[in-house]
## 1
Amino acid sequence: MKIGKPFRTLTLKEYLFYIDNHNKYTDFNTLGLYRSLVEHERLTLEEKLELRAYAHRFFKKPFDFLQLKDPKTYVEVAYLGQELTAGDEQQIWRDVKRNQHQILKDKRIKHRNFGDYSKHNCGDEACIWYGLMVRQGSWLAEGNMHFNTDIDKYNQKQQADRIKSERKNERNLINKAIQDEQE
C-alpha cells in the first residue's frame, strides 16, 4: 500500500496511524517524516514535540543516522521549539561533526557520499548543477564533509616532492664534493 500524500498535509491522528503501520506502506520515508515536522504549518509546537517523541519510539536509530545523511534536518528536529544562542549552535554543530566521525568509524564506512554530501550544493538554486549527484572530491562537490583527522593528499604530494628534491640536491652536493676532491 501507499500513503499517496505528503506527510506535511497529515493531521496528528493520521501521523500516528501511519507511524504505527509503517511496515504496510511502501512509500513510508523516515527522512520525509522528520522533515515534515519542521515544515508542517498546521500542527502546533506541542503536537510536533509529541509526534517527535512518538516517532523516536520506532525510528530512533534512523533519526540518529540523519546526523550523517541530513544534518540540517537532524538539528532542526532535535532542537524543535528551542531558542538557541549562537554559542549553542556552534556547540551543536561541533557535536554533530564529532558524531558523524564516530558513526563513520563505528560502521567502518570509508566513503562519505550520503544525502546532502553527495549532491552539488552551492546555495544558488539557479545554478545548473544544483542538486546534481557528484563524486566526492570532485571540483563540483562543495561543502563536503571533512574532519580535522583527514589526510590532505595535496600537502602529502607537496611534501613528497620537497623530500625528493632535497634527496637529489644532497646527492648532487655529495657528487660535487667527490669531484672537487679528485681534482
## 2
Amino acid sequence: MNNHSNTVSISHFSDVLCIWAYIAQIRIDKLKAEFESKIILNYHFCPVFGAIDVLMEKNWGHRGGIEAYNKHVLSIASKFPHVEVSSDVWLTNRPTTSISAHVVLKAIQLLEDAEKNLPGFEHFLWEMRLAFFRDALDISNYNVLIELADKSGFPVDKIDEKIRSGAAYAALEIDAQLKSEYRVIGSPTLIFNEGRQILYGNVGYRVIEANVRELLNQPEHQASWC
C-alpha cells in the first residue's frame, strides 16, 4: 500500500442537537474538499440529548434552567459567524429527544446504501441541523422530520418502512455498540486508525488535517511500534 492508494476511514460520532457538531461541520466539509477520495467518512450517532428534560434538570436546573442553556448556546455561536442560530433555540418548539431524529437519519443511510439518485445523507443531516439551530423547529417530532425529508426529496414512504420494520433502530443500535467499543464520550468525536486516534470536541481543522496526513503517509503495518 503506497501513499497514492492509501485511504483513511473516519468514524464521525455526533448528536444532531449538539452545537459543537453544528459548528464543526465546516471543518468536515473542508476535509472532504481537500482530501476527496482519500478519506471515507462513516457517520454514527450518540444520544447526548437522548432525554432532554432529565439532562437539562441535571446539568442546568441549578444554573437557571433552559433559559440559561439558551444563553449558553447563543454565547458559543456568537464566536463562530459561519453558523446561524435562532435567538429562540431551545426555548421555542423545544425537542424532547434527539433519538427520533437519529432514527430517521439511520433510515436515510440505509436507503442511500440500497438506492441511487437520492439527494444525499450528508445534505439532509445538515438540513436537519439548520432546522433546529437556525429555524428553531422541534426535530424530535416525527411529523416535522418527515416533512423535512419530503422537502429534501427523500421517499418518505421508504423511510417509514425502514423505521416500521425495525431496520433503522437496529442500525442505531450498531452505532451504540461502536460508541461503547471506541469509548466515545461525547459529540462530536472523530475516530481514526481503528480507534487508536480519537479527537473529541471543538478540535481545530489543522489538528484533524494532521491526523489524516499522518495516516496517509505512514508505511503499511505501522499500527504499533512495539
## 3
Amino acid sequence: MATSSSRRNFLRGCVLLAAAAAPLGVAGEALSLPSGTANGLRRSSFTPHLRTGFALVSADGAVHPATLLQVSDLAAGPRGHDRKFRLLFSVSSRPQGGIFELRHPRIAATELFVAPVGNGSQYEVVVDAR
C-alpha cells in the first residue's frame, strides 16, 4: 500500500510540475487559478502576503495553519525571478511533508508539494516554473 501511495504522490507531483508551466490569469484582486492546479504561481503573488496566515490542507482534510515567513530566490536560480522562488512557512502542527492544498484568502487555492526543513516547524515550497 505504501508503494502505491508513494507512486501516486510522485505522479501527482509530476502533473503539478507540468501544470506550473501554464500561463497566469488574473481576475480582480485574487489570482484566477483553477483550484487544485499549480499553474500561474508567481513570486509577486506571494510577496505581499509575508507574515500572513495560510492553511495547508492535507488529502484527509486536516487543516494546518501556517505563516509565510519568507519568499526567496532558489539557490541555483536567477535572482528575483517571478517563476523560480522558494516559500518558507512556519507550521506549528508539524505535519509530514507531501502534497497539500495551499489556501489564502487573497490567492486561489492550489496543490503544492510541501517539505519540512530546518528546526521541524518550518516547511518549504519550491517553485521552478518555466
